[in-house]
Amino acid sequence: MSDRNTAEYWNPIYDDGHDWRQVCDAEIAMFTHHANPKPGQRALDVGCGTGQLARALHSLGYGVTGLEVSAAALLTARTRSSAQGPRWVQHDIQTGPPPGIPPTSLDVVSFRLSFQFLDGRPRILDMARGMLRPGGLLYLVLPVLERETLDAGRQSSALPAAEIAELCQGWHVDRWELGWMDYLILRSP
Ligand SMILES: C[S@@+](CC[C@H](N)C(=O)[O-])C[C@H]1O[C@@H](n2cnc3c(N)ncnc32)[C@H](O)[C@@H]1O
Questions:
Q1: Which residue ranges form the domains of the chain, and what is each CATH number?
Q2: What average pLDDT does the segment 116-131 reach?
Q3: Ligand 1: distance of its center to the CA of 105 in Å?
Q4: Contact at 8 Å (CB) between 86 and 55?
Q5: Which of 107, 66, 75, 104 is nearest to 10 (CA)?
Q6: What is the CA(112)–ligand 1 centre distance, in A?
Q7: Is the backbone of residue 57 left (phi > 0), alpha (psi -120 to 50) or beta?
Q8: Does pLDDT of 30 surpass 90?
Q9: Is the whole model's pTM more than 0.85, yes or no?
Q10: I want to staple 140 with a disulfide (CB 3.0 to 4.6 A). Which of 24, 135, 172, 184 is the partner?
């Protein structure tokens, strides 16, 4: 069981002004190359933090919901976004699909540096699959335990390569690496 999947854990971190690795042009270029976004498609960013990826997806033309367990993270996300930007929802993804997201209604469900903190990961992946339209995709950014460039502080939340490979079974996978992270796009075959 992780202790890093609750608002009690994350709120003080965001209250201290903490943020994570910036969404860079290379990440968006690779995502765009593989996902081929079309205006009007819908995306859900799970564990959106201060909203970096959610805003980038909005700029690509997606109608975006940024989902977070931490109210403090969402406060910053709202402050950094325009009123026309993503919709922000406070919700613990481990309790089930978020309100207002019907089954098979999304083109993208993303977990950028958030999936590794969740309990019951295969079940969460199945739930995310249930929210996708036919042809939709999951986008996962994960720290990989075996990467030499992974620093000691990140080891406790990194996933073993074998677990990542197991999670990918039954999906069509596009995968690339940047440093200590795996970037994965999963589609139903
Ligand atoms: C390392 S941060 C990454 C934030 C953001 N995705 C980014 O790339 O900047 C992990 C995020 O996952 C969120 N999170 C953890 N458990 C969650 C849960 N059960 N439901 C929703 N969000 C959760 C945390 O609140 C935190 O903001």
A1: 7-187 (3.40.50.150)
A2: 97
A3: 22
A4: yes
A5: 75
A6: 8
A7: alpha
A8: yes
A9: yes
A10: 184
